Automatic annotation (TrEMBL):
Organism: Enterococcus avium ATCC 14025
Origin: domain of life: Bacteria
GO CC, one annotated term: plasma membrane
Family listed: Belongs to the EamA transporter family.
Location relative to the cell: Cell membrane
Record-annotated membrane-spanning stretches: 46-68, 75-93, 99-121, 133-153, 159-177, 189-210, 216-238, 250-270, 276-292
UniProt keyword Transmembrane present: yes
Keyword Transport recorded: no
Principal subcellular localization: membrane
Name under which the protein is recorded: EamA domain-containing protein
Length: 296
């Protein structure tokens, strides 16, 4: 792998994590200040983002936005990615938040890279590198220190939230690994666009996007647009684009930047404090990621 390509992939994955952090802040404002539901936000963001990305694919000269449906194996692959990947990763994450807390959901979803490492080890019939596992464990500890300030009591854990949380981590691993062949064949715009649009079908069966219960205003609309455009259409597009340049393991590990930026942004927006434990967590996460990107 060329260094320039690897740096491009790292930049894309890191930028996606940053946009997810910004989107998470807007989502929290929509939940807390404007009483929108997580189910409505998921169905709306996926439906609109899917339309935007497919429109962009058409405008940028894609030969046919329906190319993925011509071969049976590609049709099965995109449907699988849409439901078990794109939709599942968002629904299970928000369900975990609903049953526990955003802090616990962030930490448990971040175990996703471990599932990727296990999958790649089984695929290649080779045990994972000890140093890689140690660095990943240190990164997880750093994420825990950031989002929970090292306070276990802050994390509300029930058997149901743990089950949904593990499902969230597995979904993260799945959508980081499964679409590689589709991305190479059809490009990110078509794959992510259809993944979003098709994935929005079950989401809208649960909560149609045209039935909202929150308070709609110019301010809340701005946050909805941030979630839909920056936090969904753009972020997932560039994250999956990063998979063309770096491994699934490295791309998923770079999502650790999300809690870093979310915590930093929360200080001025929600008037939270940045503790010494969280600061140490920042140093651990950044340090381990810098080391991991050299070995993955």
């Amino acid at each position: 792998m060329k260094l320039a390509e690897k740096n491009t992939g790292i930049l894309f994955a890191g930028l996606a994590a940053t946009l997810w952090a910004i989107s998470g802040i807007s989502g929290q404002i929509l939940f807390n200040d404007y009483q929108f539901s997580a189910e409505w936000l998921v169905s709306t963001r996926m439906f609109i983002a899917g339309l935007l990305l497919l429109s962009a694919a058409k405008l940028t000269g894609a030969p046919s936005i329906f190319a993925l449906f011509r071969e049976k194996k590609d049709l099965i692959a995109i449907l699988t990615f849409s439901i078990l990947g794109m939709y599942a990763v968002q629904y299970t994450y928000f369900k975990t938040i609903e049953l526990s807390s955003a802090s616990f959901a962030t930490i448990i979803q971040y175990t996703g890279p471990f599932f990727i490492i296990i999958y790649e080890a089984m695929k290649n019939k080779r045990l994972p590198n000890r140093n890689t596992l140690l660095l990943m464990l240190l990164t997880l500890i750093g994420v825990f220190m950031i989002v929970a300030n090292g306070n276990i009591a802050q994390l509300t854990v029930t058997p149901a939230s743990l089950l949904w949380g593990v499902g969230s981590a597995i979904s993260l691993a799945f959508y980081s690994v499964q679409p590689r062949n589709l991305l190479k064949k059809y490009g990110s715009l078509l794959v992510v666009g259809w993944g979003m649009l098709l994935g929005s079908v079950p989401a809208n069966l649960i909560q149609p996007f045209f039935r909202y219960t929150g308070e709609l205003s110019l301010h809340s609309l701005l946050h909805i647009l941030i979630v839909v455009i920056l936090g969904t259409a753009v972020s997932y597009f560039i994250y999956l684009s990063s998979l063309k340049y770096i491994s699934s393991s490295l791309a998923s590990i770079l999502t650790a930047f999300e809690p870093i930026f979310a915590t930093v942004l929360s200080v001025p927006i929600f008037h939270t404090s940045l503790t010494a434990i969280a600061t140490i967590g920042f140093v651990i996460v950044i340090g381990t990621i810098l080391l991991l990107q050299k070995v993955l």
